């Protein structure tokens, strides 16, 4: 038996330990998350609570935090294997598996704010390119994981001007790593739970995460010395996926109810993120971290100069796998519509 097959069977066996034995016709889904309960999990926690309440327990979602049933990078494989029904995935953790889903994390897309990014993301989730990509994993998007813009925290000499990024080692997985390369930095991919130790040991100089709550959730501010405030590198493209088999087994009413609850859940997550900023940004400053605010003109000039070559390279890299140029144009068109609606 190959190591890969053995690992797959081990994952399924481990997941089975967490499945609640059914003594009725109730449906129980196991949902794999990493980290603890925090601002970014408000939406899935609300969905789990409300779906159980509104179905009188006929459908329950059991949330497993802290990689209890699967490593963060392997959630998508666990769903494909049937080890559990749903899980939080970030395409930057496995860019080769979900390159189309990762397109929403391309650096410097014209997404004016978090609500614009959310509107566009919802449109992409039902696009044929994404549906075909996720079909390979027997999965579909159940919920968008709303997260704010990527910024940086780091140690050592602060990059007060854009040229100071040259040669810096930066935790920036997936597509956002291309943005770091454009700045002159050297990107590396490290799962979020490992950032604290890696930065403390100076295995890299800075880390990119959505700003601000994840830096607080993973206590990065405790080992950092500075942070950027207006880089606005990109928006995350994370989602909660669900097994196609599990989704198909639901009634039409249950599927509609999930979609209805998601609208509430997303609004609650927007509120939670705003509250997190109110709580944590002053904490970062009070802890003595230096806030770096770049000249807006310099930032815009840099983005206008580097964005299109980065996007074109992404298209070239993926054009044999799916109609990448058409899909990118779809994203840009939807971004223009969403930006106009928010003005």
Compose a concise summary of this entry.
The protein has two domains: 3-91 and 137-147 and 236-275, D-Maltodextrin-Binding Protein, domain 2 (3-Layer(aba) Sandwich), CATH 3.40.190; 150-235 and 277-342, 3-Layer(aba) Sandwich (D-Maltodextrin-Binding Protein, domain 2). It is 45% helix and 14% strand.
Key terms for this structure?
343 residues; alpha/beta; D-Maltodextrin-Binding Protein, domain 2; six-stranded mixed β-sheet; five-stranded mixed β-sheet; 12 helices; 45% helix
* CATH fold-type name of the largest domain: D-Maltodextrin-Binding Protein, domain 2
* CATH architecture grouping of the largest domain: 3-Layer(aba) Sandwich
Number of domains: 2
For the biggest β-sheet, the strand order reads: 7-6-8-5-9-11
Order of helices and strands: HEHEHEHHEEEHEHEHEEHHEHH
Approximately how much helix is present in the residues?
40-55%
- The CATH class label of the largest domain is Alpha Beta
Q: What is the strand content?
A: 5-15%
Fold topology:
Blueprint: H1 3-16, E1 27-32, H2 42-54, E2 59-64, H3 75-81, E3 86-89, H4 114-125, H5 128-135, E4 139-144, E5 150-154, E6 169-171, H6 176-183, E7 186-188, H7 195-200, E8 206-210, H8 213-217, E9 226-228, E10 239-243, H9 244-248, H10 252-286, E11 290-292, H11 296-318, H12 324-342
Parallel strand pairs: 1-2, 1-3, 6-7, 6-8, 9-11
Antiparallel strand pairs: 3-10, 4-10, 5-8, 5-9
Helix pairs in contact: 2-10, 4-12
């Amino acid at each position: 038996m190959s190591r890969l097959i053995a690992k797959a069977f081990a994952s399924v066996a481990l997941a089975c330990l967490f499945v609640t034995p059914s003594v009725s016709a109730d449906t129980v889904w196991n949902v794999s998350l990493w980290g603890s309960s925090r601002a970014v999990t408000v939406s899935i926690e609300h969905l789990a609570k409300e779906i159980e309440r509104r179905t009188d327990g006929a459908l329950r979602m059991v949330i497993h935090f802290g990689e209890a049933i699967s490593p963060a990078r392997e959630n998508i494989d666990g769903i494909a294997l049937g080890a559990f029904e749903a899980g939080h995935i970030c395409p930057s953790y496995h860019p080769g598996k979900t390159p189309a889903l990762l397109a929403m994390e391309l650096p410097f897309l014209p997404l004016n704010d978090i609500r614009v990014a959310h509107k566009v993301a919802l449109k992409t989730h039902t696009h044929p390119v994404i549906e075909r990509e996720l079909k390979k994993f027997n999965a579909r998007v159940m919920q968008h994981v709303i997260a704010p813009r990527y910024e940086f925290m780091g140690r050592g000499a602060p990059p007060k001007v854009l040229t100071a990024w040259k040669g810096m080692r930066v935790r920036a997985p997936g597509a956002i790593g291309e943005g770091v390369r454009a700045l002159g930095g050297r990107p590396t991919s490290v799962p979020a739970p490992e950032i604290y130790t890696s930065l403390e040991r100076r295995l890299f100089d800075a880390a990119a995460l959505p700003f601000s709550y994840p830096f607080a959730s993973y206590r990065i501010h405790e080992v950092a010395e500075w942070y950027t405030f207006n880089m606005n590198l990109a928006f995350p493209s994370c989602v909660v996926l669900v097994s196609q088999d599990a989704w198909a087994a639901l009634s039409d009413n249950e599927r509609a109810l999930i979609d209805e609850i998601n609208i509430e859940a997303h609004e609650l997550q927007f509120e939670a993120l705003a509250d997190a900023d109110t709580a944590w940004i002053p904490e970062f400053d009070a802890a003595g971290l230096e806030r770096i605010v770049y000249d807006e003109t310099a930032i815009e000039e840099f983005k206008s100069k580097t964005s299109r070559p980065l996007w074109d390279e992404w298209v070239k890299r993926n054009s044999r796998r799916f109609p990448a140029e058409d899909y990118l144009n779809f994203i840009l068109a939807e971004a223009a519509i969403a930006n106009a609606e928010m003005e």
